[in-house]
Amino acid sequence: MIRAIVLFIILGLGLFVGSEYSGQQGYVLISIANKTIEMSVTTLVIMVVGLLIAIFALEFIVKKVLSSTFKTFNWFTIRKIRRSRRLTNEGIIKLIEGDFKQAEKKVIRWAKHHDNPLLCYLMASEAADNLGNIKKRDHYLALANEQNHAKLAVELTRAKQQVNDGHISLGLKTLQSLQPDAPNNPILLNLLKRCYITLHRWQPLIEILPKLRKFNHLTEAENRELLETAHVGVLADIAKRNNSHDLIEHWETLNRHDKKNAVITAAVARHLLNVSEGKEALPFITRVMKSSPSTQLYMLIAEVPQVHQQDAKKLLLRVLAKNAHNAEAHSAIAKLYEYQNNWSDAQFHLEQALSIRTSIADYSRLSEVLAQQNKTQAAQDVSRKALSLLPE
């Protein structure tokens, strides 16, 4: 548009000058070295306009040629990208279907022409890993690592493959290198969870559970189960030191919610029974039961060393004095009477416990207590009752 305006202006000026100086064209003399060119002003104007038109026409032609060349090149490039995308999509489907050989072939064939080669190399690595070709798998990961912004995706893929192959320690090392940059990554956290469980790294597992729960990667039930497993594991490691003080000190560091967890407190009490001759077990159980009584703790009371059994019996009698319908207290004190061969009292408390709730274990114990008193028929009847409660 601008070029056309310029041409019209020049033509207009030419017409104006031509009409003004009609019959007085004058002349133009151009001297170059030994040559001279002489022409009228009108001729010079016409030549300039013609030259401009020729330049503009040449520019238009050159642009058209370059544009056509670019479009042709771009058409071929887009065609390659589209074909690469199609093959990659087909390869991903094959990977999901389990046809790993075809998946690898399709995603890698036109990977260089894909607009995101990283995806192709990662899929090829997964396919090669499933085919058991470690050399190819690592080669594809190396190619993927050459792409921009590839570190997280590549290392997560590498870690997952290492963990799946059973190289847990190696996978953990890879994951720990990513933690500073991606502390809340869901795949990283779940892989860390698998590593910690397999390697019995209980304390680090406890530390990442709040994040897994926060980002909805664990249900409430799963979180509770893992938390209990981890705490029990930590306590087992501490118990190896054979020091009751360390066990109690660790329990004191737990938060209020964990201190009320029956599985965790029972684990502490169980380990206390097995270290330092069980001296700290009963005081610990007595203290915990004031705020968080549980079935496990009642049964552990009956397991205290013989020297503390009289104190344990007094504790249970106090509990029953406050609540005669405490089935677990009846069952626990019956166990103490069994240790003392006091069969009649053991029978009484077992019958009291079973009148409140059903327990196959207590029925079995009652059958044994009756047999010890030569009450054969009654023992057989109770034994049949216990057998009837067993799941088919």
What features would you describe in this structure?
The structure is a single chain. The protein has 392 residues and is mainly α. The chain has a domain at 313-392: Serine Threonine Protein Phosphatase 5, Tetratricopeptide repeat. It has 20 helices and 2 strands. Helix 4 (117-130) packs antiparallel against helix 5 (134-145), helix 7 (168-178) runs antiparallel to helix 8 and helix 19 runs antiparallel to helix 20 (376-388). The longest helix is centred in the first third of the chain and has 57 residues, at 41-97.
Number of helices: 20
**What sort of overall outline do the alpha carbons produce when their principal axes are compared?**
rod-shaped
Determine the CATH topology of the domain at 313-392.
Serine Threonine Protein Phosphatase 5, Tetratricopeptide repeat
- Please trace the helix and strand order, writing H or E for each element: HEEHHHHHHHHHHHHHHHHHHH
Largest sheet, order of strands side by side? Answer: 1-2
The percentage helix is over 70%
Class by alpha and beta content: mainly alpha
Give the terminus-to-terminus CA distance: 94 Å
* CATH homologous superfamily heading of the domain at 313-392: Tetratricopeptide repeat domain
CATH architecture designation of the domain at 313-392: Alpha Horseshoe
Quote the average pLDDT.
85
Q: Would you state the CATH class of the domain at 313-392?
A: Mainly Alpha
Number of strands: 2
- Characterize the largest beta sheet: strand count, sense, and whether it forms a barrel: 2 strands, antiparallel
Contiguous uncertain segments of 5+ residues: none
Rg over CA atoms? 45 Å
Membrane topology: Multi-pass membrane protein
InterPro entries: Heme_biosyn_assoc_TPR_pro, HemY_N, TPR-like_helical_dom_sf
Domain HemY N-terminal: 26-131
Subcellular location: Cell inner membrane
